[in-house]
Amino acid sequence: MLAEALNRTMLLMRTDLVPETDDDEMLAALTATRIVLEAREDALNTHSGQSAFVTAALLMARSGHEVWLDAPEHAMVGLQPPLTGGNLIESLLEVGLDLLPDRNFQRGRPYEGADLIFVLGSGGPERYGANRIPINADGWSATIDAQSANWRGASWPMGGMAAGALAAAEAFKLAMRRLRHRATAPAYFDMLYAPSVAVEVRLAAANTPENVDLPDFDLISGGAIANAALFVLYRLPAIKGTGRVLDDDRSALSNLNRNALLRRSALGERKVDDLARFGQNLLVHPEPVRFVEGMPLADTVLIGVDDIPSRWAAQRAGSQWLGVGATESFNVLVSSHEPDQACVGCLHPVNGGVEGAIPTAAFVSFWSGLLLVSRWLRELTAASPAHADQQLFLNALRPESWAYGATPIGGNTACPVGCNASAPARRHAA
Q1: pLDDT tens per residue across span 142-183
Q2: Which pTM value belongs to this model?
Q3: Cα 326 to Cα 309: distance, rounded to the nearest angstrom
Q4: To which H or E segment does residue 119 belong?
């Protein structure tokens, strides 16, 4: 059952491994990777620090790693779905029993030692070693640092969740390095899976407002990117809104490796019902239907489906803002489209013909949902720079040089939607 649950992750691993690599070898690399998450009081006293801790733990667990929680018990600060509330460590241990089959969280530190130790915050005894990686965050950014420091974040958890995703990628890379002898291109493999030493990822400007009433919205798909987007939105304090999530599918065992809100006990349930259960200030109404061309949509639409014609159909619905989250291998592409801009058909003019199981891992899908929400929140502010940077690209394994800088999209003569931006390009081409 564990191999079935991690099937999509192992398909992604095969990208850089020789065909002779079997599932048992990849599964052993994932499950033998032993991680300690060490959190100090200054981090655990904040919603940001708890969000980083929970995000890292859940993303690593969904990749099959052995995860140890080295932190004092602490009352939960704010919402942390799919945790149910109460005490943080107790709730995480309970959820760990309900994720991948035959896996669970451990408390404390392993006697045998750990492959990697991620440190959140400061104030305890300082230990040093090549396998210790301090992570930190403020409201809108996350870092992998050289040494432990006071936790910078407070109540706003966006940077904290990004820090958790950075840590999860480092754990996955370590698992992949166990398979280096199976690399198809060793030099490229070494570059791609090398540890990240010093990284800062900034999701938005530090002064981006943190108190927003969301417009009514539709979320198309109940899959991995939609899970990640709602995992993020449900954690945001002072955010209110109402939306729908549209999907006719039910959760399966193979979804456990990446659907950020899914617990094993919910397998077989409709995805939209599972996603809607966690809302409080943000109310999400489940719509157990498959989105098709011609279906009316809200003025704000977020879409995370792999099927490119579905993205075109959503664009043709005429919404005022369409945000798209996508992944391919370890790459994440997020874009937004308003009526006066190049549309999703200009950016994705060709149907890639997605067939069969799509390779992906928890931290890759999570980055897509996190960046999609970040883009949406930025564009809801008066001083938004979003018109200048319609698309964002991130390689989830190599975030060192990434920033949210301007990347415009031009009108495309091959646009299948026939949007306003593509019309001048077609006239010029003629």
Answers
A1: 999 878 889 999 999 999 999 999 999 999 999 999 999 999
A2: 0.95
A3: 13
A4: strand 116-120
